[in-house]
Amino acid sequence: MQRTAQPFEVEPGEVLEKYYEVLLRQFGPQGWWPARTRLEVILGAILTQNTTWRNAALAIARLRQAGFLRGSRLRRASIADLEACVRPAGYYRQKARTIQTFVRWLEGFHRGSLDALFAQPPEVARSQLLALRGLGPETADAILLYAGKQPFFVADAYTRRVLARHDLISSEDGYLAAQRFLHQHLPADEALFNEFHALLVETGKRHCKRQAAECQGCPLEVFLADRKGTQPSRRSNVFRPRSGFRPHPRREGGVKAHGSE
Ligand code: SF4
């Protein structure tokens, strides 16, 4: 009797594990977030909305020059001063207001203490951040992951593009659906989320561009060429991490977990 071949299915978690390993081998540790303190991470997360990191870095440099990377000085900054500093990042009125809103809220609600903010249950801290004007899920999660060391995957446009082009999510999926997928299939590991997200951004910048995917030479090309055995079943939601699935040890020079504010 002829037997019907069963489709070969791979758990999404195993696929993600392979992607992570290949990207890390190819690109190396990314050393995110490029900042000296947690406050600088937070300002960077706000400033990089809808612009390049290069423009956000210019704004950060101006804030540094003005002495506004110190919490005590930033709290006293006028909106006009902030607008002048953050102008290179675009949407400068909105971003200056968001920075001021955050700083005033932190002062009023947590006595200016980032330790107090991040000592709360992560979901509580997240909902507080999301309630602030100007902070959406992507910015809130970047703050929680890169400044607070909390395992929230930043499912930004780069991440969603790569996942969708590999049929891991739908191209219609938005931020929350993509994040849910990643949280469902990856161990909740802050260091892993940090590095994996940075690697996916690098992939998006170098190869998986918005206009077109430049697959030739992309580290993930192999997964397109050999779909058999590398594509997951969307029906499956069981993650079975191998013991070796661990993030790369951190590189020196990233943000200090307890840096001065
Ligand atoms: S460029 Fe091609 S191979 Fe690379 S991530 Fe995008 S779709 Fe995949």
Description:
This protein has 261 residues and is an all-alpha fold. It folds into two domains: 12-31 and 153-225, Helix-hairpin-Helix base-excision DNA repair enzymes (C-terminal) (Endonuclease Iii, domain 2, Orthogonal Bundle), CATH 1.10.1670; 38-147, Hypothetical protein, domain 2 (Endonuclease III, domain 1, Orthogonal Bundle), CATH 1.10.340. Helices cover 54% and strands 0% of the residues. It contains 13 helices and no strands. The protein has helices at residues 12-27, 38-47, 53-65, 71-76, 79-86, 92-110, 114-119, 122-130, 137-147, 157-165, 175-185, 190-206, 221-225. Helix 8 packs across helix 9 (137-147). It is globular.
| Rg measurement, Å | 20 Å
Write down the overall mean pLDDT. 87
Given helix and strand content, the structural type is mainly alpha
Annotated CATH topology of the largest domain: Endonuclease III, domain 1
Percent range for β-strand residues: under 5%
Helicity range of the residues? 40-55%
Could you name the key traits of this structure?
single chain, binds iron/sulfur cluster, disordered C terminus, Endonuclease III, domain 1, 261 residues, Endonuclease Iii, domain 2, 2 domains, mainly alpha, 13 helices, disordered N terminus
